[in-house]
Q: What sequence folds into this?
């Protein structure tokens, strides 16, 4: 998108509000939207953590959005509130049902409905899936994911860089020429510019998919 057609903050605000109305999981009248320099701030309240997450995802889908600050409050209905022991037990069951992660490698702590996950997994997608499994629970107010990625394989920096660049070239959602992957040991640092949040996320996913990656720092800038 050229500078001449770049969206103003007011236009982005209207687009985000429309996207929230389009999202069937939400009641958009409960959510406030403010935009400054392409950064969206969401306020208000919802009755489930999954709805807070859905609102954030909806905002990220809108073109021109550079980042989202999610200040939405989760207010569980009285019948949806459970003790921390109940929430912890439900979280463990959810992780046990998820074939992508082993609950034996994770620790679950719950305080006032807020779940903290710790432990180690081999791949980033397992870390991501563990969080997804828990945040879907109706009694959860929020999730802090402190799970670390500890690969079982080692790869040289040159090999990691080559595989990541090849993955970026293969992806239909990224412009590989605008993205640079810097490798420091088993950590990848992404630089460059992209046109949307989705493209930024896809570049990060490509970097995490390389065998041997333990950490990804995404410094890519969105310039619509």
A:
């Amino acid at each position: 998108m050229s500078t001449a057609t770049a969206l103003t903050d007011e236009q982005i605000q209207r687009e985000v509000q429309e996207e929230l109305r389009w999202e069937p999981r939400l009641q958009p009248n409960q959510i406030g939207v403010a935009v400054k320099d392409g950064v969206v701030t969401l306020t208000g309240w919802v009755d489930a953590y999954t709805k807070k997450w859905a609102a954030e995802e909806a905002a990220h889908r809108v073109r021109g959005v550079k980042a989202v600050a999610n200040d939405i409050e989760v207010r569980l209905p009285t019948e949806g509130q459970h003790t921390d022991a109940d929430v912890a037990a439900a979280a463990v069951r959810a992780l046990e049902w998820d074939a992508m992660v082993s609950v034996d490698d994770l620790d679950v702590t719950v305080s006032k409905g807020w779940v903290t996950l710790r432990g180690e997994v081999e791949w980033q997608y397992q870390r991501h899936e563990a969080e997804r499994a828990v945040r879907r629970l109706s009694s959860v107010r929020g999730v802090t994911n402190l799970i670390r990625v500890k690969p079982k394989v080692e790869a040289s920096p040159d090999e990691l860089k080559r595989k990541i660049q090849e993955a970026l070239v293969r992806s239909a959602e990224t412009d590989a020429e605008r993205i640079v992957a810097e490798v420091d040991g088993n950590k990848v640092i992404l630089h460059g510019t992209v046109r949307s949040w989705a493209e930024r996320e896809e570049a990060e996913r490509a970097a995490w998919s390389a065998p041997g990656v333990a950490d990804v720092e995404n410094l890519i800038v969105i310039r619509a």
Summary: The CA atoms of residues 161 and 181 lie 6 Å apart. The radius of gyration is 19 Å.
